[in-house]
Amino acid sequence: MRIAMMVGGPLQSLGAAARMIEAHGYDSIWTAETGSSAYISAAIVAGETDRARIGTAIATAFTRSPGVTAMNAVDIDEVSGGRFVLGLGSQVKRVNELRFSTPFDHPAPRMREYIQAVRAFIGGYFGEEPSFEGKFYKVMMAPWPRVPPPVRREVPVFLAAVNKHMLRVSGEVADGIVGHPMTSLDYIEKVVKPNIANGAEKSGRDPRDVELAQQVIFSIAEDREVAKSEVKQQIGFYATTRTYIPVLALHGFDDIVPMLREAYQQKDMKKLSSLVSDEMAETFGLYGTADEVKEKAAKFDGVVDELILAGPWYRVDPSRLMENYRSLLSTFAR
User: Could you tell me if 121 and 141 are in contact, meaning their C-beta atoms sit under 8 angstroms apart?
Assistant: First the structure.
């Protein structure tokens, strides 16, 4: 199982952080699209590393045209010398419409076309006149030539997928998925893998060709209560979003969603955390001392291809963010 790490924070510090992650032997480094562009962050990481794979986990798809996304992908692939993975996600309806002023409809079919359009655009750099025309997107004109041409004809495309429709699209057209940290081993085995296989069968592909890079909520502290509290707060925050209700429902936890939403709307973080049971924290998070967390993480070996370390960040004190980050970095160093 490959081990990876998320990187974020001030852009000025990304290069040093990326070099440190690579020096600790990590296989991949992933950038998120939260306060900053995932592509700019990934370009900085690419220029400061030599070996590790670099990916976006994830860059929002519908907020950009497929052509703009394709250009970003080949740019970073060039800077990294062919180490880039284009990780795309639909994001949720509210974020698309209210934050980015982007229409959000038929996300799974739209994403299928989006990936196809990105690949058609990149193919245009190699003398192929694009001829992709779908319901949502079309690419009918080749991009301006690049000198030199792109490093690779095919940049791997991973898709953020939680629910069955997007998982099936991943199986049909993606090279891999970036699993959301709101997950469990049972959800991966009972929902993620079967739906990827369903989509792969539709396209005549081997589901084993779809790589599974899985984020998980990690929190390391000598005081287990501190780590557990951070995990609970992160789970409570994620669980207010309807996209993750099927993950909760698989374990019978979905009945608390209305109460979590009410606490979130009231900005009552103490109540939000208290609604998340110890059983939920054990199901969806890996927390405790360094040795305990490493032992728990070993259960993912053989289930996923790559484990992406991601710590709780929602309303976590900055000093604890850094403490957990340093603990994860050293605990899983190769």
Answer: no
- DSSP H helical ranges for 5-142: 11-23, 38-47, 66-80, 93-94, 107-123
pLDDT in tens, 12-62: 999 999 999 999 999 999 999 988 999 999 999 999 999 999 999 999 999
What's the token pair of residue 332? 């899983």
Burial class (CB in 10 A: 0-12, 13-18, 19+), 1: middle
Question: Is residue 263, in this structure, part of any structural domain at all?
Answer: no
Angle at 102 between CA 97 and CA 103, to 5 degrees: 80
Q: What residues have CB less than 8 Å from 253, skipping those under 6 apart? A: 239, 277, 280, 283
Q: How many domains does the chain have?
A: 1
Confidence grade of residue 9 (pLDDT, cut at 50, 70, 90)? confident
Res 227 pLDDT > 90: yes
Asked whether residue 128 carries a pLDDT value surpassing 90, the answer given is no
Asked whether the beta carbons of 225 and 189 are under 8 A apart, the reply is: no
For residue 148, the model assigns a pLDDT of 87
CB 135 within 8 A of CB 113: yes
Q: Whole domain around residue 62: which residue ranges?
A: 2-221+285-331
CB 166 within 8 A of CB 94: no
